[in-house]
């Protein structure tokens, strides 16, 4: 693909967002050395963005500037800087311009394309989807999907856990969001369309979301077909008056403050929004959990002991069971700390701001980085060490700063999907821990972060070797599998 149109599109986009008060003299944060004409630090960022941001922090501390195509960007890391970043009000910073690349996928007037008040109302619809009765239904669905999926595995083998995580979480997400009936009839066509839609949200999309690349063309075609497919389900439910404990039902029952019902197009857009938010991030976290359980046998032993303590020989699992798996929660939280799916979070300043003795002019791009911010020694001791017990009683390092652990963002825009994601991952890994043993299939150095996509996961193939555990013998001499 010819690069010149992409560079031009990137330059035009970032130049259009230049600071808007040229007559005032600002004391700007120090500029990171390096970069090239036009692209600035973009090439270095494309290769290893975290090394770039860490270099800036090592040189300048909590705040510094770097050059992206057409304009500087201010980077804020450290607990004081992160608190400032996440506590800014919607009247002070804006996400809409930054996340324009989501509009071709989610739809016009949805999420980041909506006015702030409408976006807040749309996000509010997710609260109803997280009420107790819905969560119980979701957990039952997670368990059913795990038993079906892993019941088809052999007694031993090698699998790509990134592929497993992405495939399995689309099953669990579609079941919880679109309903059990839809999941039962999940077609190859839906999976293929969703793949094309997902593949169309890539690095190019950040700078030129409408550039007619092959991946964007496939994305747009898939979006039309998925809209027709999901819109048809919405219309049929409304016509039949069908009720179900899933997120689609939440949106069908919802109304805006002015009393207006959501249109089929809005329901489709919000369904795709929550699917993207929950599917790919959970898929990569599922894979990192596999890597770290296989890499640390002592952690695996503690996790297995917890499963035996919580469930014993029971094969059923309730919402209360999942909630009580604290060590498993800490393990997943530690994966999210060391390997956050979203390595950079962006805002645009709407007004002049200041921090640490420096000015941030209106129109400046602002960035926080969970990958760097969650490995700061003043918050997390020995931050490059995988240690789930740092969240346990007596330590609770994540509570040292309200904005220290920011894998799901922070403040008023903290992702509400954290409850759903944690329940989903704990339910799936509860089944795996009780039924399989794992070890790395490749040298440990093979498991590195892949920065080629917007969602940063393990570099493929993320291969793990599994062995099915022998069936248990109960006190009555009956042989049973612990979770199948």
Query: Would you tell me the overall average pLDDT?
Result: 87
Unreliable stretches: 1-18, 473-480
The total domain count is: 1
Counted by DSSP, the helix tally is 19
CATH class: Mainly Alpha
Proportion of residues in helical segments: 40-55%
What's a quick, concise take on this entry?
This protein has 19 helices and 14 strands.
Question: Can you walk me through this structure?
Answer:
This protein is α+β, with helices and mostly antiparallel strands. The chain has one domain: Cytochrome p450. Helices cover 49% and strands 11% of the residues. It is built from 19 helices and 14 strands. Strand 1 (63-68) and strand 2 (71-76) form a beta hairpin. Helix 7 crosses helix 8 (161-178), helix 12 crosses helix 14 (264-295) and helix 15 packs antiparallel against helix 17 (326-338). The model is unreliable at 1-18 and 473-480 (pLDDT under 50).
